[in-house]
Design goal:
The complex is a heterodimer of chains A (310) and B (310).
Chain A (H helix, E strand, L loop, with lengths): L1 H13 L7 H30 L1 E5 L7 E5 L3 H8 L1 H33 L6 H9 L6 H12 L5 H8 L12 H26 L3 H9 L4 H12 L1 H16 L3 H6 L12 H10 L4 H31 L1
Antiparallel strand pairs in A: 1-2
Chain B lengths: L13 H14 L8 H28 L4 H6 L10 H10 L4 H33 L5 H13 L2 H14 L7 H4 L6 H14 L2 H9 L4 H12 L1 H17 L2 H6 L8 H12 L6 H21 L1 H12 L2
Helix pairs in contact in B: 4-15, 5-9, 5-12, 5-14, 6-9, 9-12, 10-11, 12-16, 14-15
The chains are: A mainly alpha (310), B mainly alpha (310).
């Protein structure tokens, strides 16, 4: 009795909202955590279980397949698979091209929009955000057509200028898919960065101007450092986003043979589940992708909090 | 916690931003920021950047007015025989109006995710902000981990679990996952902190309103702009989702428009007469989103700010 009364008073001290203890909070939280458990936790746990098992046929391959505990064997097989490792490497290369292009482009565009001489900011904001209202599937479709000779004005114009590019051949298809990602996401991040730029205190910029700093100097040495926190959040979500790469290569793979069915890890996992019918390997691959995301986002948050402190 | 950047929600700095913007545009560029050349460079670059964003969508609009012969035969931005209505009629006729069934499915999936998923998120975010309860920090940590796990990494695990309980190829395989929006919980916590003063709730409690009643009659209306923002983003997220329905659904009657269009794209490889339908269908499927984004500009801008700017 007494301890119960004590804890209630202690709890009430925190914020003076009575009747907001555990039981009421539960009422508000249960719906979310219920769907969270069903849609995220349970699937991951079940996949972990699956990834440690394997279907094995007995004897001569007749009769029912048996589920056997195999430990880490699925993981070993996934990592030994040449196509999976190639997919990871390709994803790495994709990141190396995509992140500088997209984030760099967004920073430059946001700084340009924030320049004193820029006109029609509202219109530009709306225009650059336009691609984000286009679903990934449709964006990939549009670009697939823009890459296809015979239908594409782009290929036609380049040919008119004497340039022959096959956007969908084995060498160009990766940059071509990078371009789709850049098109989809740059504008979205321009808006975030532009809003961050608008929060840069006027007085600092005024002081810099009085001290003789030009527009470009102010952009590089004052505005840019001040939007670094926003930039680190963008980096975090961009890295998580790149690991999701699935829709664009899936659509492009129908237009060209250069994109194989195991082109990136997500396609590999999809292929494992639905073409090769090896659910255990698919589960292991999914766990690897999620683990990779966890490690990378941890690294980015660590790095950025260190940067923000210094 | 792995997500130190995200872990401390802050209020969105929208007010100073608008004030400063107004201040600036009043001053104009006559007394600072350089002359004609820099004005030309900055605005020229902005125009080029925006053109890159807009031209592919414009191409889609032009292409949807052409029939198959003109699509491959005429210059891309020239108007051939104007066949937009014919194309729309063909889209509507195909498989007994299946396309509109797909559109309807997309509206239903995205609508349920937007209305109910966001309500669940808003309730949870409100509780995290306003209530004191045990394990608050670790529970919120779970939410942040949910934000950081890439969607596609949980799609296959979700499929594996759904096939265990026999729920694949039903609408529930889509409707349950779309209710889970951890990022919405994070945003809602930010909105609750900035829109709902604790004093108001305290006053409501004095007047005898319970926490549930004061949420629905005070908290929720005050957070309405935040609720709309979260709902808008969830609507777009579900509308754009490709991998989940692709994996979960086999019955064509249940597909959302994103997967449906990609199936038509598959048909159009051996049968080019499908191409105008893919293009026109793509255009029809993005119009609702474009309208929503233009009408709700105010909301998505504040959403992006609250999510990323510290």
């Amino acid at each position: 009795m007494a301890t119960q009364a004590l804890t209630t008073t202690v709890r009430r001290q925190g914020r003076a909202l009575a009747g907001t203890g555990g039981r009421t909070a539960a009422l508000f939280l249960v719906p979310f955590f219920a769907v969270f458990a069903i849609a995220m936790i349970a699937p991951v746990i079940y996949s972990l279980v699956l990834s440690f098992h394997s279907q094995q046929k007995s004897g001569l391959g007749f009769g029912e397949a048996k589920t056997v505990f195999v430990g880490l064997e699925n993981y070993v097989q996934v990592f030994q698979s040449e196509t999976f490792v190639e997919g990871i490497a390709r994803l790495g290369l994709y990141c190396l091209i995509y992140i500088p292009c997209m984030v760099g482009g967004a920073v430059v565009f946001a700084l340009l929009m924030d320049a004193t001489v820029a006109k029609a900011r509202k219109l530009f904001q709306l225009l650059v955000f336009l691609p984000h209202a286009v679903p990934g599937v449709i964006a990939a479709l549009i670009w697939a057509y823009l890459y296809t000779p015979g239908i594409s004005p782009l290929v036609q114009a380049l040919q008119g200028g004497g340039i022959q590019i096959n956007f969908l051949d084995a060498h160009m298809v990766l940059p071509s898919i990078v371009n789709i990602g850049v098109w989809e996401w740059t504008g979205y991040n321009v808006i975030i960065l532009f809003t961050a730029l608008q929060a840069v205190p006027r007085e600092i910029l005024e002081a810099a101007r009085v001290d003789g700093a030009g527009e470009i100097r102010a952009a590089v040495s004052i505005k840019f450092p001040l939007i670094l926190p926003a930039l680190s959040v963008i980096m975090l979500f961009t890295i998580i986003g790149t690991l999701q790469l699935f829709t664009e290569p899936n659509i492009i793979s129908k237009a060209t043979a250069s994109v194989t069915s195991t082109w990136v890890p997500n396609l590999w996992a999809y292929d494992a589940a639905f073409i090769r019918h090896n659910l255990n390997q698919a589960a292991a691959a999914s766990i690897i992708i999620a683990g990779l995301a966890a490690i990378l986002s941890l690294a980015v948050t660590r790095l950025s909090s260190r940067m923000n402190k210094s | 916690m792995s997500a130190s950047i995200l872990s401390r929600p802050r209020t969105a700095p929208t007010k100073p931003a608008t004030r400063r913007n107004g201040f600036r545009s009043n001053r104009g560029s006559s007394n600072r920021g350089g002359g004609f050349a820099s004005k030309l460079t900055v605005n020229g670059l902005l125009i080029i950047g925006s053109a890159y964003m807009v031209v592919p969508v414009l191409w889609l609009v032009f292409a949807s007015t052409k029939n198959a012969a003109d699509l491959y035969g005429t210059s891309a931005y020239a108007l051939g025989n104007f066949s937009l209505f014919e194309n729309i009629a063909n889209v509507a006729k195909q498989d007994g109006g299946l396309f509109f069934r797909w559109l309807g499915n997309s509206v239903m999936y995205a609508g349920v995710g937007a209305v109910f998923g966001s309500l669940i998120s808003v309730m949870a975010g409100y509780a995290f902000d306003k209530f004191q309860f045990r394990w608050k920090d670790s529970l919120f940590g779970f939410v942040l981990v949910g934000v950081l796990i890439p969607n596609t990494a949980t799609v296959l695990p979700m499929y594996l679990l759904a096939s265990l309980v026999g729920m694949t190829n039903t609408i529930w395989a889509i409707l349950i996952p779309v209710l889970c929006n951890p990022f919405g919980v994070y945003l809602a916590r930010v909105y609750s902190a900035s829109y709902v003063p604790a004093e108001t709730l305290e006053a409501a409690r004095m007047d005898g309103a319970g926490p549930v009643r004061s949420f629905f009659s005070l908290g929720l209306p005050m957070m309405m702009p935040g609720y709309i923002t979260i709902a808008l983003f969830q609507f777009v997220g579900v509308w754009n989702n490709f991998m989940l329905p692709l994996v979960m659904l086999q019955d064509q009657q249940l597909l959302p428009v994103s997967v449906g269009i990609s199936i038509w794209q598959g048909y159009s490889v051996p049968q080019p007469e499908f191409t105008p339908m893919v293009i026109t269908g793509s255009l029809l499927s993005i119009i609702p989103l474009l309208v929503a984004f233009i009408m709700l500009q105010r909301f998505w801008k504040s959403g992006l700010t609250a999510g990323s700017v510290k």
